[in-house]
Amino acid sequence: MTDQTPKIANVPALEKAFEILDFITTSPTPVSSATIARELSLARSTTHNILQALTSKGVLHKDNNHLFSLGSYLLYWAGRFEVERGVVALFHELAVGFETLTPYTITLSTLDFDRGETVFLSSHQGSSAIDFAFRRGVRVPAVFSATGKAILSQTPFDRVLAMYETFPAPLTDKGVVDFDGLKAELDKVKSTRLSLDDGQLRLGMTCVGTYIRSQDGVRLGIAVSLSDSEYAKQKDVVGQAMIELALQIEKGLGMG
């Protein structure tokens, strides 16, 4: 009788990558490439190449001292179960209770801090049709999105600057064009708790956003999407409803 168990291919580079990730995960502080190579008995060139590949994908983060720690993309993967079963469920459960927001699409998003991108996690569809792809996993530049700007407003500005080599090119003629303009918008969010995408992602669409505090800090945000004419009529009541929804989500996450 022959053994039908399929053989698992040995991929040395992948195994070394997992060794490095395990080592960094258990380290209490960021570590250097030389330390990783020495402690794991790996060639420095091999270690360097793997670290560069993982950093370029956002799986690892390299600070200004060339020390490595886990990147936000890996943390995003690790937290998928909690997000899917916890925050997303809470978001949908609470959103249905806001009649003011019923006609509109509300999105829940997170921020990829390494790439400076808003990542959509889920959407609660409204009856008002907005022709924009709010599918889970879709990414847009955080500097132009309402949820992105809401989260960035609670992030030290020097860290915001470090996310981008150059300021992203605007997607529409409404887009903020430089870091000075972005800082002015973020300062306003700090005082009102509301962020605004006034056609910066798509002309004719206005999004009002706010951030959500959790035990891990501010990594989540919500936004509601309206036509420009709807926003002109409903901006005050919609804005207040969004803040109240965010506060209720925070309470459900143990922050209130």
Automatic annotation (TrEMBL):
Annotated GO biological process: negative regulation of DNA-templated transcription
IclR-ED domain boundaries: 66-255
Superkingdom classification of source: Bacteria
PROSITE patterns: HTH_ICLR, ICLR_ED
Sorted UniProt keywords: DNA-binding, Transcription, Transcription regulation
Keyword Cytoplasm: no
The HTH iclR-type domain, residue ranges: 11-72
Gene Ontology terms for molecular function: DNA binding; DNA-binding transcription factor activity
SUPFAM superfamilies: GAF domain-like, Winged helix' DNA-binding domain
Transmembrane segment boundaries: none
Name this polypeptide is given: Acetate operon repressor
Organism for this UniProt entry: Moraxella lacunata
Lineage: Bacteria, Pseudomonadati, Pseudomonadota, Gammaproteobacteria, Moraxellales
Gene for this chain: iclR
